[in-house]
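User: Structure tokens for this complex, please. No commentary.
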Amino acid sequence: MLTQAFYTNKNTIDVAKNLLGKILVTKMEGLVTKARIVETEAYCGITDKACHAYNNKRTKRTEIMFANGGVCYIYLCYGMHYLFNVVTNTINNPHAVLVRAVEPLEGLEIMQKRTGKKENDFTITKGPGNVTKALGITNNQNGYSLLQNTIYIEEDDFILSSKQIINTPRIGVHYAKEDALLLYRFFIKNNLFVSGKKIDNFAN
DNA sequence: CGACCGATCGTCT
DNA sequence: GACGATCGGTCGA
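Assistant:
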């Protein structure tokens, strides 16, 4: 299991890159699922126009982002999808990393059942909405510590070289104006579970 | 393959 | 009352 120090790293870009290749584990109602993180996005605090905490915006929803790193921030997007974020940085520095895609490692049948997919193709955990659906994550787990055993992140001997990490602008943040251009999206090159249109994945 | 569109609801103004 | 850090289906080239 990754330790607190991993999450309180003040360089959120590094955390977003370091999360690639790590294993996201959920234990929901006795069901264990594990999946390798293959795509992330960094949301960097009160100066980042794409971040929900931009301009020091503290609301009931964003409050958890102001916590010390190592908890989850989960919210409902477009009224139908839960999106899972790792809160990073230290207290009152509301940074987070969105997990946009994972690759199933364990509990594939459980994921298939949860998502209602008829075939086990790469769409099962492609895209942030599908990630939470497959892993059984809802906003019931909002604020959960990643140092407990319901949701946590671990690592194995998977090695990722910096050459295999691609960066592009973030997806779906057009409203963030110039900050929409920041290269804060990271993914593993050539991984089939990575989300977005193909053209998005050749931007860099 | 790309463009478009509807579904759906908590949160904030 | 408006708006999303989305997804999957459909339509047309």
